[in-house]
User: Fold these one by one.
Assistant:
Number 1:
Amino acid sequence: MKFGTKAIHAGVEPDATTGAIMTPIYQTSTYVQRSPGDHKGYEYSRTHNPTRTALQQNLAALENGKHGICFSSGLGAIDAVVKLFNPGDEIISTNDLYGGTYRLFTKVFERYGIKFHFVSMNDTKEIEAKINANTKMIWVETPTNPMMNIIDLKAMAEVSKAHNLILAVDNTFASPYLQNPLDFGADIVMHSVTKYLGGHSDVVMGALVVNDDELASQLVFIQNACGATPGPQDCFLVLRGIKTLHLRMERHSQNGKTIAAFLKNHPKVEKVYWPGFEDHPNHEVAKSQMRDFGGMISFTLKGNRLEDAKTVMENFELFALAESLGGVESLCGHPASMTHASIPKAEREKVGLVDSLIRLSVGVEDADDLKNDLATALSKI
Ligand SMILES: *Cc1c(COP(=O)(O)O)cnc(C)c1O
């Protein structure tokens, strides 16, 4: 089955009792047993819930994996992955990581004796320099936030295999429509389902997809033992959101291309970060592992003044200033004062994250209206 068909049908069967075409919201915490241990596969909703099962199977199919495992947030999913490891184990990760992941690694799991290394992943030598007998996992995010760097998944899989490490990829920015990391040799794919998969800014959820049965059973054990599971109503909403994932991603990518080109030619804009540009330093890698380039764009302003960035964001009518991304509506964010405020200014600026950098999550509205909104806001500076 191709992607759009899977998005609509995978994991979803007409309801056995009524024929309802949509998976019902099984709003129940428990399930009646005929006799102790004699049940229909469902005992308690932290462990299993039919609405969640449908979603997990759907997500597994979209990522070309065997097992989908859902969590109550993206961070809940990452938390479960790190719980595979023991004190003394080491994990290597990217140096421009999602802020919440960085916080979870350094502020929570370092206290439990797990050691993290943050390196640039453009060069596998930097990774190999950090690998030792305690290294257990490489954690990758691509495209990165907000600089839109692309990390070569095949190269990461080669390093991981050579050293017997688990390769985990946060695929939130790309969504399964644009990129399927398992196909390039990753062992674990992680999603903040909150973003493109949910797609309508109405749910917070996370997910993992894996192929390996043993790895899946360890993660399912953690899912149940630690209990960060989503409720059935949220699973229903995400199943519904996913039915249009392919349509939304096509339009996000089309609009992304239009807006990126518009910004690149705008006299007040200094630099535009978008992997679809031929002069993006990782464009060839992006082309080799992504189906299209998506609607996440960052740009900076000439003169690099914080006040100018504020003026632009205050004057948007359509681009709402808000955390998050991946919804049908366009959003903008200011990483230097929002998601990346806890990183010292000098550190931020080393990777290009300057005060005038604005990040856009280009929605699926009409591109002409989005261009007009940007033109009006930019005309105020
Ligand atoms: C939002 C996000 C997360 C965290 O997910 P939540 O659902 O907010 O817990 C992790 N990684 C990336 C890339 C994100 O954008």
Note: The pocket of pyridoxal-5'-phosphate is lined by residues 73-75, 98, 100-101, 141, 145, 170, 172-173, 192, 194-195, 204, 206 (CB under 6 Å).
Number 2:
Amino acid sequence: MRTFTAALVALLSIPLTSSVAVTDIQGPAWLSPLVGQTVNNVTGIVTGKSKSNGFFISGTPSKDRRVSHGLTVFTTSASILSQVNVGDLISLSGKVSEFRSSTSPDNLFATELQSPSNIVVLSSNNTVEPLILGKDRSPPTQALSGLDRGRDGWLSVPNNRSQVDVVNANLRPDRFGMDFWSSLEGQLVTVRKPVALEFENNFGEFWVHGDWPVTGKNKRGGLTITFGPNGIPDANPETVIIGSPLDGTKNPHVTMGMTFSDITGIVFQQFGFFYILPTTAPTVLSIPDPTVPPTTLRPTTKNACELTIGDYNVENFTPTSSSKATVANHIASFLASPDIMFLQEIQDNSGSKDDGTVIANVTLSNLSAAITLVDNSTSYEFVDLPGVNNQDGGQPGGNIRSAYLFRSSKVSLLPGSPVGGALDATLPIRGPDGKVSLSFNPGRIDPTNSAWNSSRKPLVVAWETTNGHRFFTINVHLTAKLDSSSTQGNSRPPVNAGVDQRTSQVETIAKFVKSLLKLDPLANVIIAGDHNEYIQTRSVFKAFDNLMFEIDEVSNVPVTERYTYVFDQNTEQLDHIWVSAAIAARGTKVEHIHVNNWAPTLAQRTSDHDPSVARVHVC
Ligand SMILES: *[C@@H]1O[C@H](CO)[C@@H](O)[C@H](O)[C@H]1NC(C)=O
Ligand SMILES: *[C@@H]1O[C@H](CO)[C@@H](O)[C@H](O)[C@H]1NC(C)=O
Ligand SMILES: *[C@@H]1O[C@H](CO)[C@@H](O)[C@H](O)[C@H]1NC(C)=O
Ligand SMILES: *[C@@H]1O[C@H](CO)[C@@H](O)[C@H](O)[C@H]1NC(C)=O
Ligand SMILES: *[C@@H]1O[C@H](CO)[C@@H](O)[C@H](O)[C@H]1NC(C)=O
Ligand SMILES: *[C@@H]1O[C@H](CO)[C@@H](O)[C@H](O)[C@H]1NC(C)=O
Ligand SMILES: *[C@@H]1O[C@H](CO)[C@@H](O)[C@H](O)[C@H]1NC(C)=O
């Protein structure tokens, strides 16, 4: 076995006329300065070999940290692949290419040597020492790209103001995560003490951080989206995906917080993300405790003013959902059957069958019955408001909606107003008694406003406690992020699909709340539901500033524990509960119950969202 230095000596002893170094091909910027050119006598040691998509070489390192000395050599030719082995020092010719792993313009280009030829094995059994991440070099921990300009950093609007490949800036690996990973493109690296940040994806790939400085670390082991020290949202760029092992072994099933043996592999860029392609699958070293503690916020019969509020997106729930017993158990056993449950994604009685059915009373009564099976002391009543068939988004035919379950022993709908129709806008009004009520109860907020086009309309209810105090709730499910672009993609800031519509939706809700608080500044208002947006996207929630107060903030929940969802590298909060000033002033509590995102395996997760429970006082 020769060392890398010995190999370099061997390399220097060969006459190299018009040879091109790997570092010349990589250059200090995003795109190769030699793109399109055929290069000869490129020399390097083979560091990895895929089953059918080529191999990787390591050339002489540069002192310039922007410049990678690793390179992908792409070939599907079995005969070419059979000519090289890991440890071979080779020289070869090929065409420098910038390859996009799908036609999506959102994917970055990867620098490759294509159509390899003239392969000469100069020596074998050389070793290349991997770069030890966290020791030799560590990724930056806050920003992804210098192009993510704006007050909200990577979450700033408008999106996609510039593209990485068009600007083609020189890399700044000390400042920006994408630049960091790109500066190591094709190189052999080791991740010590890897920790999984999420379940694996459909291809068995999973996000990790290793033994290096990280920010946003929650108690479970994931990395939560937070604000950085400069007040700009932190994108957790210190993370990378572990791809399919090069030797054909299979990665284990993973869950957030699981730890593994050290991973050595090649830094690679594909499908809009930076990967490490491990030489072999890691082994699992530790598994987080699967026990999910139930909420400590239990309903009370002693104080009519004290309410517990649950919030849960139950993901396309139908009368025949296989998740019914589990969801019922979550609500009864883990959320302690809150006084009022805010539910989202309740489908109509016929589920996703597109048969014109819109009412969901069977879905809701079935769920209520299933809860009573678990907790015979609870017999929930329900309220929802059917929309117009197929006008509220979601799965076609499913007519998902927001709905409430409630304990009639604790709260009831304020009487005296007609029930709203699908297209009726309910408005705050002052009743003959001088108190505020709603023109329709339950009712929808401005349902014909284009902000609610193809989206779930907020369900407003005016309630009364058993001692005669009233309060208002708004159950929301804002438009989804579907078709957003990759956080590590070409478009900067990344495309946050639906962001303009979500902003308008928050504005219409804020307008409603303002008109209510105008009639009674001390009104008790609670908004809860799936907002499909992080609090760090401040532009979306601007209309709530000084109007509604997020309960996590009011309750002083540690910022890293504010999460209900896990996506790619981030734990994040999409589900929010907001309270008006009167409620905030009385003090609140909230707990996020991780029944889904702490599941031992992806298959055991019931919904993609975790539910939350809050305690509020409405009088
Ligand atoms: C490449 O190297 C070979 C020896 O391996 C040498 O014969 C040839 O002249 C070199 N070609 C160029 C273009 O430098
Ligand atoms: C490389 O090493 C292996 C054992 O580690 C040995 O069998 C083989 O002969 C060596 N090959 C060369 C070309 O030195
Ligand atoms: C970003 O903008 C560019 C240039 O207009 C466009 O080609 C690209 O499709 C956009 N990306 C996304 C994800 O919308
Ligand atoms: C659902 O509503 C329909 C129509 O109002 C009614 O006939 C039916 O009995 C209800 N079913 C349940 C379970 O509430
Ligand atoms: C749902 O409720 C209906 C009416 O209450 C009942 O007939 C039916 O058996 C229930 N379905 C399931 C799957 O529990
Ligand atoms: C609820 O279940 C408990 C124990 O299973 C039983 O003792 C009690 O009588 C039940 N209560 C009702 C109202 O059915
Ligand atoms: C509503 O959404 C549909 C499909 O998403 C679109 O075709 C239509 O133009 C939108 N209408 C308005 C008023 O935004």
Note: The mean pLDDT is 96.
